[in-house]
Specification:
The protein has about 625 residues and is of the alpha+beta class. It has an eight-stranded mixed β-sheet, sandwiched between helices. A hairpin with a 5-residue loop joins strand 12 and strand 13. Helix 10 runs antiparallel to helix 11. The chain starts with 5 loop residues before the first helix and ends in a 22-residue tail after the last helix. The N terminus is likely disordered.
Length: about 625
């Protein structure tokens, strides 16, 4: 009998090795080679469900019909955006990721006081491995588009579009106060006008801009109907030529291309302009400009349009809240403020979609992650007015706001549709969200109660006096108290004194009442329940507070009432077990059981499940489980 040659033996051994790897791989992952993931910030499952039943979210309906869907997903604690996306991307809770809020206490504790913090976005170190780093180790390529970024996130070889790190200033409004009343300075090459031009002047960042209201001879409308913008009084250097139009769906057609300005640090930045109104007699106008942002650094950017590179990120939420867009519906307005605000959100969504369209077409990728800050931003603005459980609820206001919020959700669905259209063969598509939303109509200043109980003290200037303060609800506003322990810089509470302090805090806070209503529903001690709930740790809190529905935290110190009324709004950050904080998750594609409804899902389950489906190792710090029940084949 002739023995096989050595080359045959080597080939046989190689074939057996390949076969063993295939058999060891998860059956559901054998055909999923790529993945597209879209994160909707702050999606409310009940509202999504209503829109689905009405046929208003067709792309999401398509994703759910052919995939596995969970609409009761438990977020992290606190249920905020930075810790939520840190947990989604790593499969680990805040205690492990180190991201305990949108701002994070500084560490190590012995070097920093309870008053010091870092931004949870960009500045705070991510202490767990994100799934794109896991993919890199396996030789995969990833594009991460605007997912909240963190320091030390280990994404060196990932294409990382971090637009929120590029914002250099605030958005703003320019009105008739910008009209120059002094004798006008003569312009070089002035644009033609049938009426005397009216000059305006305003600033974005460090850039001084000039404008002329004109009656354009080429426009049949009588009176002033055009605004030209220049960086100097020279009509040959016009940056934008704007026509007024009321806010409306499709209003992005009336926005300027991004114009170059200097940021507060003298860096090049871009901003978009929108002329919402111009009186034909030139007596007033309403001009909005977006937050200036430095241009995205793109690979192979020769084909990238100005819109792709010039990030917006959000709508005009602060301007809407402070009334700069006009009087809100809840305060007797006509709806004009809401229409303007809605259009700024839709424009921001449009810009994100253009960036993602370019990025998915012009970069090699195995995993493509995209993010939109919506519907969260609109939910913050309007959820309080839409919550029938609040005593401030007014049906007539809710009826007017609901269609506007629906438009924001539909824009998110369009964003999903864009990515579905770019789906390649053997590609998994997932939709994720980080938390839900609850309506608020009152705020509670816990520091007032702590001060009255002698647990917190202020100095003569009204600042926290750490030499006399035992515990504080810090300005990071993450739903937890921080003990000024001797483990921290300038701390005074000894380990032997902690138990008595916690007992006293429970006594004080659980006794708080608003009339007959108890305000604090629960107090969770991170020393006792931290491991089980994924809270606490070096950059977390000590005592986590759950307020009753309708109440939010007020982190101020000093004077003022313990409980104050608030114009209704939406918020999140509460105990992740609350129904209002739950959110959604969808998987669709190779290896997924079509039509599956999955339950008992946490956001920390996303990364391990995605890794399994793509035949990747589990992210090394992940504690979440693989959602085997979503798979088309048995485990």
């Amino acid at each position: 009998m002739k023995l096989p040659g050595s080359s045959f033996v080597q080939a046989l051994l190689g074939a057996l090795l390949v076969l063993s790897e295939v058999l060891a791989a998860p059956a559901s992952a054998q055909t999923a080679q790529k993945a597209i993931v879209l994160g909707w910030d702050g999606a409310v499952p009940a509202f999504v469900g209503e829109m689905l039943r009405q046929g208003k979210l067709p792309h999401l309906a398509q994703l759910i019909e052919g995939g596995a869907f969970a609409n009761d997903v438990i977020p992290g604690y606190p249920s905020k955006t930075a810790p939520g996306f840190a947990s989604l991307m790593t499969g680990a809770p805040a205690r492990i990721t180190g991201i305990s809020g949108n701002r994070v206490p500084r560490a190590p504790q012995e070097q920093f006081t309870i008053l010091e913090s870092l931004a949870g976005f960009a500045d705070a170190p991510l202490r767990a491995e994100p799934i794109w780093a896991t993919a890199q180790r396996a030789g995969k390529k990833a594009v991460v588009a605007h997912i909240p970024s963190f320091a030390d996130e280990r994404a060196e070889r990932t294409v990382r579009l971090a637009g929120y790190d590029l914002i250099t200033g605030r958005d703003g409004i320019v009105t008739k106060r910008a009209i120059q009343t002094d004798p006008p300075t003569e312009w070089l090459h002035p644009p033609a006008s049938n009426a005397p031009p009216i000059e305006i002047a305003f600033s974005i960042g460090e850039s001084q801009l000039f404008g002329l209201l004109i009656d354009d001879p080429a426009d049949a409308q009588l009176g002033y109907e055009t605004l030209v913008i220049s960086a100097s009084r020279d009509g040959a250097e016009i940056k934008a030529r704007l026509k007024p139009a009321p806010a409306n769906v499709g209003g992005e057609l009336f926005w300027s291309a991004p114009i170059s300005v200097k940021s507060g640090r003298g860096q090049e930045a871009q901003s978009y302009l929108r002329l919402f109104d111009l009186k034909t007699d030139g007596s007033d106008f309403f001009l909005y400009y977006t937050r200036p942002a430095r241009a995205l650094e793109l690979n192979n950017d020769a084909d990238a349009s100005a819109t792709v590179r010039a990030f917006i990120g959000n709508g005009a939420s602060i301007l809407y809240q402070n009334g700069a867009l006009g009087r809100s519906l809840a305060n007797g307005g006509s709806g004009g403020a809401e229409a303007r605000y809605l259009e700024t959100m839709l424009m921001a969504q449009h810009q994100l979609m253009e960036t993602n369209r370019w990025a998915i077409e012009h970069n090699p990728w195995d995993l493509f992650f995209a993010y939109t800050p919506f519907p969260d931003e609109a939910e913050h603005a309007w959820r309080g007015q839409l919550d029938p459980a609040l005593p401030t609820f007014r049906q007539e206001i809710a009826d007017k706001l609901r269609p506007l919020l629906e438009q924001v959700y539909r824009s998110c669905d369009d964003h999903l549709g864009l990515l579905l259209a770019k789906r390649r063969e053997n590609t998994l598509v997932a939709l994720i969200s980080d938390h839900g939303m609850q309506g608020i109509y009152k705020r509670v200043a816990l520091n007032q109660a702590l001060q009255q109980a002698g647990l917190l003290a202020l100095d003569a200037q009204g600042r926290v006096d750490l030499t006399r303060t035992k515990i504080l609800y810090p300005a990071v506003n993450n739903g937890y108290l921080m003990i000024n322990s001797t483990q921290r810089k300038s701390g005074i509470v000894k380990p032997t004194e902690r138990a008595e302090l916690v007992r006293k805090v429970r006594e004080v806070l659980l006794a708080l009442r608003d009339g007959e209503r108890q305000i604090v529903a629960a107090i969770i001690d991170a020393d006792v329940d931290g491991e089980a709930k994924g809270i606490g740790g070096e950059t977390g809190g000590d005592l986590y507070i759950e307020l009753v529905p309708g109440y939010d935290f007020d982190p101020r110190v000093g004077g003022g009432p313990l409980i104050s009324d608030a114009e209704p709004y939406g918020t999140h950050g509460a105990n992740s077990q609350l129904a209002s904080m739950r959110t959604l998750m969808v998987f669709n594609g190779p290896g997924i059981r079509a039509g599956a409804k999955i339950s008992n899902v946490q956001i920390i389950d996303f990364a391990p499940t995605l890794a399994w489906l793509l035949n990747l190792p589990k992210p090394k710090d992940a504690t979440g489980r693989v959602l085997y029940e979503a798979f088309s084949e048995p485990r």
